[in-house]
Amino acid sequence: MAEKTVYDSDKELYIGFCDIPTREKIRELTASKIGTLLRISGQVVRTHPVHPELVSGTFTCLDCQTVIKDVEQQFRYTLPTICRNEVCNNRTRFHLEVDKSRFVDFQRVRIQETQAELPRGSIPRSVEVILRAEAVEMAQPGDRVDFIGTLIVVPDVSQLSIPGIRTESSARHKGREGFETEGVRGLKALGVRELSYKTAFLATTVIPSDVKVGALEILTAEPSKKGDHILKDLTGQEWQKIYDMSLDRNLYQNLIKSLFPTIHGNDEVKSGIFNFFGGAPKTTAEGVCCIDEFDKMELRDQVAIHEAMEQQTISITKAGVKATLNARTSILAAANPIGGRYDRTKSLKQNIALTAPIMSRFDLFFILVDECSEVTDYAIARRIVDLHQKSEESIERVYSLEEILRYISFARQFKPKITEDAQSCLVEHYQNLRLRDAGGVTKSSWRITVRQLESLVRLSEAMAKMYCSEEITEDAQSCLVEHYQNLRLRDAGGVTKSSWRITVRQLESLVRLSEAMAKMYCSEEVLPKHVKEAFRLLNKSIIRVEQPDINLMEEEEEDAMEVDEEAGNIQQNNIPNGHDPPSDREKTQRLTLSYEEYKSLCNILITCLQKEESRSEETEYEGMRKSQLVNWYLKEIESEIQTEAELIRRKNLVEKVIERLIHHDQVIIPLSKSGLRSSEEQDENDPILVVHPNYGTLEV
């Protein structure tokens, strides 16, 4: 007798179809394709975690204990319709036997149309793909995959969970006489409620496609040559490498990775290859990226620009793929002030809606104020009219565009080198900074740590990579440090304090500008004159716009103008001929201060109040009143006062400054005590003064 082969009946087999000749687009999956074998392709945009799915359940009736096997599940938890026991009529009370039921791995994947299949100006269509058993975990976000299976209809669980969406049978409403109403009402609403199913694609086979391998085949294959000609052209050494790659797949993958980077930017899509677009900073690599309306950029764009300016890279996350693109570019940006007009009484950072981290990444700031000038306006208008009347070629230029481009290309050929003397000078100046930081008298407002040394080292490396000159001399290095110290000392002062802090970033800007000056003059060395010119340029951009004088009698002038209009005729009749009426403009001029003088006086008064506040916290001292502050200031400057008129003028001056700090700048807060009437009157005329708690972050 022949031996009979016994097969294990518990072995689960899943059928998969391959090499379906026809391929359907996701946009063409309609109701007519339901139940047919199809092949679709798309890019995976989202994958759900794998979880077990109940395929065939075994239930036990809770009334008669009858076991019901092989209850097929319809993509949702499905109970038996009725107990199989003829005596039992149970329809709802069943218990699932997990040990006797059959489960399988289940995963949902969402794919969308590729760029090659997407019609121009259309939004990509997407569809959910259901994977089971061995097909799970074969597709990752960002992969372009082919799926072979069938289009099915599955219950929409999200719609079924909405209250009132399940349709239940009910008796028709009867009329007043017991007859049924004519027709069926509410068909539109009933049809909408029954739409609790959606289409999905049940895949039996997953065929991932390697984009790099496809790109390699596209770029290496020549249409003019066929396979036989290519095989004949291969040498013995090339055949040996191909044989080695067939034995070790890692060699093949390494070859592909060496030929094609993980992410690369391109300006068009060819042959169905999905490319990343890096934007303006990426496409202008090693050039200049010009951005207009920089202050009106969205927050996410500002974050990307911040990364490009800080790390010279751009991070992209698309379709689950994380990539980093190089963005080695210079940024030239233009922004408008808040309200459309530059306020001279405020600093630069208060006039522009930009954050401090973004502003700190720029080297230079230039403020263009549109002032009314007859000469300047005529020159601008004449230039614009000439551009419209004449062609661009006929306008006289000092240098042509070709000459400028050739000059820039020539200047970029210079590569800098740091000599040993410059390195020694770098270490010496860093030690001097450390010693100065350790002192108490000349202690700076920032700590000199190893970070500053690392910054200087990075600057030295940047010097060697910039297209400037061949060497950076020791004199230029000393000049750099000297000018940087001058900026720091000016920043530590109170009168000439700039609108932002002078940090190592300004030193980096000074180095870059010095190298640019040497490059512009095609010099082989960065000389001290280049550093001085860079310092002049940086110093010009750091200082604030020239502030107008502070008029302390502005409110009194407005009140006086109203009084003069009412009593103008009376004054003219009482004044004798040949004499001019006394004017208040002389008094107003005497109470007018320059911005630097006003700020210096404000700093003196605020410092005194802060010291008194710290003293009042330790003792029961209530604080300094306005009259006490005025007397303290007059006592401090008594050596400068020679006459009684000078004393009265200085007293009026400091009182007006205090009033401006209270009502206009809102830096000083007057305090009053609730109690007796006499104390309230005293507080109103001579209040206790305290400094605003947020004064440390504000600017006078």
From TrEMBL:
Gene Ontology biological-process annotations: DNA replication initiation; double-strand break repair via break-induced replication; mitotic DNA replication
Annotated Pfam families: MCM, MCM_lid, MCM_OB, WHD_MCM6
Role description: Acts as component of the MCM2-7 complex (MCM complex) which is the replicative helicase essential for 'once per cell cycle' DNA replication initiation and elongation in eukaryotic cells. The active ATPase sites in the MCM2-7 ring are formed through the interaction surfaces of two neighboring subunits such that a critical structure of a conserved arginine finger motif is provided in trans relative to the ATP-binding site of the Walker A box of the adjacent subunit. The six ATPase active sites, however, are likely to contribute differentially to the complex helicase activity.
Identification of the protein by name: DNA replication licensing factor MCM6
Keywords: ATP-binding, Cell cycle, DNA replication, DNA-binding, Helicase, Hydrolase, Nucleotide-binding, Nucleus
Annotated PROSITE patterns: MCM_1 (PS00847), MCM_2 (PS50051)
Assembly and binders: Component of the MCM2-7 complex.
One GO cellular component term noted in the UniProt record for this chain: MCM complex
MF term (GO), any: ATP binding
UniProt entry tagged with the keyword Kinase: no
Enzyme kind, highest EC tier: hydrolase
Domain of life: Eukaryota
Compartments (UniProt record): Nucleus
Species: Argiope bruennichi (Wasp spider)
Membrane-spanning ranges: none
InterPro entries: MCM, MCM6, Mcm6_C, MCM_CS, MCM_dom, MCM_lid, MCM_OB, NA-bd_OB-fold
Residue intervals of the MCM C-terminal AAA(+) ATPase domain: 278-384
Record keyword Hydrolase present: yes
Major localization class: nucleus
